[in-house]
Amino acid sequence: MALVHLDVADGVATITLDSEHNRNALSAQLVRELGERLAAAEADADVRAVLVRSAHRVFCSGADLSEASSGGMETGARTLVDLQRAIATSAKPVVVALAGPVRAGGLGIVGAADVVVAASSVTFQLTEVRLGLAPSVISLSLLPRLTPRAASDLFLTARQFSAAEAAEIGLVTRVVDDEALDQAVGDVLADMAKGSPQGLRETKQLVNRDLVARLDALGEDVAAQSARLFGSDEAREAMQAFLSRKK
Question: Structure pTM?
Fold first, then answer.
């Protein structure tokens, strides 16, 4: 069963995360399918912009700890690097609509996107340090967005923060009332649809040049760090304890 769907209409490719059983955790299947849907949208000449959203209340709950606790995370870490790069280098603007919580690895999708519109009720949290991990791979797209003080605070405390704070520190583009989210996202996409393909492509290259350079320069190192941490005894014990509490 597919966990990510693609629909194209009126020049917009809508990519929907639909893995309700684990709250859109970044399983190998979900990340692979998200990359495939992005590639399909990129190849479609009728697509002017891409929208990434969730079919359910939670946008993304972070890494799939049931997979991570069994080992072999190096390939998954590299795939997440590639996913962020695919978003940042796409010729089509990528818009993320957030109607529900985003945790840990899911913030990498948010960081790599061009425009992020969040409902006011959305919360965020970078929980890695509590599991013996670090936000290694997603730091590639998050550190260029966040103020340095905010990054230190949120990475090290793992505290939950609001959509309003996320906008203040540069993580999201704008925050709207929950009931106004669809309209606000539609307005962004309508404005983008007025741009020419060449104008959109060349402008994305300008604004994302430093981000892409960072992904290329540091991607291999942070993927290796992520795999090392996920494979450590300390992280394995913490992940197993977390999964046991959930049962």
Answer: 0.96
